[in-house]
Amino acid sequence: MQVDVEPPMPAGPAFARGPAVVSVSGEIDASNAKDIDSRVEPLFARRHDVIIDLAAVSFIGSCGLWVVVGLPQVARTYGVGCAVVTNDTVDRLLHVVNHCRPPWVFDDRSSATDALATEGLWLAS
Predict the structure, then answer these.
(1) Tens of pLDDT along 92-107?
(2) Of 33, 50, 60, 80, which is the most exposed, with the fewest CB atoms less than 10 Å away?
(3) How buried is 77 (Cβ within 10 angstroms: 0-12 exposed, 13-18 middle, 19+ buried)?
């Protein structure tokens, strides 16, 4: 698994600060799911909205549900928003565990960015 963090875009005169993006590729399983947490929670602590982009994930085990369902809830406790970008692999896991697609899950980064800009914190309510 590889985790890359793109820092948030700085605020400018005509736009607000953009979210940080944490891109994950490869396989998420019990041996590495907490590695994502350790990269994301410090961003929450620094009061950054975060997009967790799982579009390049090729496998996700049940421990990966924490990334999709748990971390956005944690974001709320910090007073920030969190959106997750998924793919068919991640959506299949949600279906298998009979979990409907949460409102903070999106098909692409653009939709996630737009939702954070307009809906922000209450995405994880």
Answers:
(1) 998 888 767 888 999 9
(2) 33
(3) exposed
